[in-house]
Design goal:
Length: 264
């Protein structure tokens, strides 16, 4: 593939993660050479902010940070964490609120607090005129219920790492959200082969969720944004179009999400 004119937007990568400690700059250069023009960084909690902001400062035209509290980091002290999120939103222009949502996969101890944190951060999105990057694991309809409860028709965003059913995909799209498609699309039992042929290219964006969920043939290994081309090719195969078309449209979808917000 000739990448010269194609710009891929990586909409979700934890490139500040410690697994890149030894070769972070090299890993990023590899991504830029592969055609990745922007990398959007979701935050997890207060402990990940410093590393993320170092990259935002070092690569101001390529690496863009989000601000938010990840549902898996919602614990007893979540109000303190949300105050830090809010403080940062007041002093820096982030591209989105993220990653936020509901995770009922591991631990349901803090489900009420997760709900409260999500709804609060939806309000912050409204206040700061930002879109949201949603993490929902084993909690799609719970998350949808909260979005509907929040009832803000202007709230837009991405269901990051979408791996649900066709019915769920259609619901997310109906709510005005995009589907973040990553390495799971390349997995044999990932299920996205049953979804992608039935949805429109205008509803998806590309992501790796690096360092997690590396696509085949790197499955189980460390993931990185350079592998987006593998994901784009798989999406192209499933949607029966060219990889160029997938990259062009997903990039447009991603840019539109940000433009919509700043132009309002
Ligand atoms: Zn993530």
């Amino acid at each position: 593939m000739n990448n010269s004119s194609l710009q891929i937007i990586e909409t979700h990568a934890h490139i500040y993660d410690e697994t890149y400690q030894e070769d972070r700059d090299e890993m990023l250069q590899k991504a830029f050479s592969a055609g990745v023009s922007q990398i959007w960084m979701p935050n997890c909690a207060s402990e990940t902010i410093d590393g993320m902001m170092v990259l935002a400062e070092k690569y101001p035209k390529q690496c863009f940070p989000m601000m938010g509290l990840h549902p898996c980091y919602v614990k007893e002290d979540f109000e303190k964490e949300l105050a830090i999120v809010e403080d940062w939103l007041n002093k820096y222009k982030f591209i989105a609120i993220g990653e936020i949502g509901m995770d009922l996969y591991w631990d349901k101890t803090f489900v009420k607090q997760q709900e409260e944190a999500f709804l609060y951060q939806c309000q912050l999105a409204k206040k700061h005129d930002l879109w949201i990057d949603i993490h929902s694991r084993n909690a799609f309809w719970e998350t949808v219920n909260l979005i509907e409860k929040n009832a803000d028709p202007n709230l837009k965003g991405i269901f990051h790492c979408f791996t649900g059913t066709l019915e769920e995909a259609q619901k997310a799209i109906e709510l005005g959200f995009l589907l973040g498609i990553g390495g799971v699309a390349t997995f044999k039992n990932g299920g996205l082969d049953k979804i992608l042929p039935h949805i429109d290219l205008t509803s998806i964006v590309l992501e790796t969720d690096a360092p997690y969920l590396a696509p085949v043939p790197y499955r189980g290994k460390r993931n990185e944004p350079a592998y987006l081309t593998i994901i784009a090719q798989r999406v192209a195969d499933l949607m029966e179009c060219s990889i160029e078309k997938v990259i062009e449209q997903s990039t447009q979808n991603a840019l539109h999400l940000c433009l919509e917000k700043v132009s309002k």
